[in-house]
Design a protein that fits this description.
Blueprint: H1 22-31
């Protein structure tokens, strides 16, 4: 089993204050070596 960090829920918005699709946010963070995954609680 892997050790996991704390869980944080958030939404990301663009400059027009429109919510960005979570799958797109995950793809962008993966490209920059940031560990982030989407899921539902």
């Amino acid at each position: 089993m892997f050790d996991q960090g704390p869980a944080v829920a958030l939404n990301v918005f663009d400059w027009k204050r429109e919510r960005i699709d979570p799958a797109l946010v995950q793809k962008l963070t993966n490209r920059n070596n940031i560990s982030l995954c989407i899921g539902c609680l």
